[in-house]
């Protein structure tokens, strides 16, 4: 597969729209040597944007709620019309009444999935453990954890998935499903919303990448190790430094009570079930989150590292914004693999995955590779004082 030309057949309609618009832009600029007719490129983009809005707008006839992430609804309907009429449509109608935003119907499917597979499987492991079941359970949870974490990202930002009349369910379900996926209770909220989004990979961010050489394995291992072993202590201390006692005590409390629960289950209930249901998913997710965070924040803009736009990376299969002149848009790669390619210093491959925008369009592969490499350089403390002046003067 050549990442520079491969078009993944599993991309959503929205992703294909974004990608085609960007590629058309590259094409026009190349043909006209950068002299784009004023109306030309904005026409294509605004058509694509209104089409995408329609696909996401429940009131629009084009609207299509996502029911599954693995299969496209259009394909299912085409292949099995009876399934659509008797199962999918009634299900969709019912699920639409439960969720806050109609675009979140897919999350009901996932909640149903977790409560009919992960939860009973874990209960069975604690009552009748077998090694084969333990391993299979762990593999299943590994398969689920990516989409689960995306769902929880929505949950922690929006304060729930179901309508507010079902708030009790919104509040309770993560206490059951979180530990089974490797999350500790409420930590995602305190770490991600209350700390990571506030600091935005800046110098005070506990998982900031800027002090590391971001294509060096040794730096990467230090980065993962620090989070893995010390975050339970560092996060409460961070909130204390910011004078936020409320968050400090809660972040500490939930982390420690989660660890205590694991300790008790391991020592007094069933260590083998605890290993496969809680410990392995926890260790795995913590490492996975840091590999992903590294990939997401490895390419930092040298001129304005504090700008969310200049240092942003957009992946074509999770497109949320694009076409910013200095942002980086990649396709055929995810954050995890960005990390892997960086640590192998495989800038050539990354250059192939980049969808050029703005002035990147005139650059050849070597120039793009060099541009990417320049963005992985470690910042010294002097750099940081210069580039993040507000953060070194005012303690927020
Ligand atoms: Zn977020």
Structural topology:
Blueprint: H1 13-31, H2 40-56, H3 73-79, H4 81-98, H5 105-116, H6 118-127, H7 131-158, H8 167-181, H9 187-199, H10 217-241, H11 245-269, H12 271-297, E1 313-315, E2 328-330, H13 335-343, H14 347-353, H15 365-374, H16 381-387, H17 389-393
Parallel strand pairs: 1-2
Helix pairs in contact: 1-2, 3-4, 5-6, 6-7, 7-8, 7-12, 9-11, 10-11, 10-12, 11-12, 12-13, 14-15
Bound molecules: zinc ion.
Structure described in brief:
The chain has 396 residues and is mostly helical.
Overall 3D form: globular
| Strand coverage percent | under 5%
The main pleated sheet reads as: 2 strands, parallel
Give me the secondary-structure category.
mainly alpha
Rounded to an integer in angstroms, the radius of gyration calculated over CA atoms is 23 Å
Give the beta-strand count: 2
Bound molecules: zinc ion
Along the chain, the helix and strand elements come as: HHHHHHHHHHHHEEHHHHH
Mean pLDDT: 86
Identify the strand order in the major beta sheet: 1-2
List segments where confidence is low: pLDDT < 50 over at least 5 consecutive residues.
318-323, 392-396
Helical content stands at 55-70%
> How many helices does DSSP assign?
17
- The termini sit apart by 47 Å
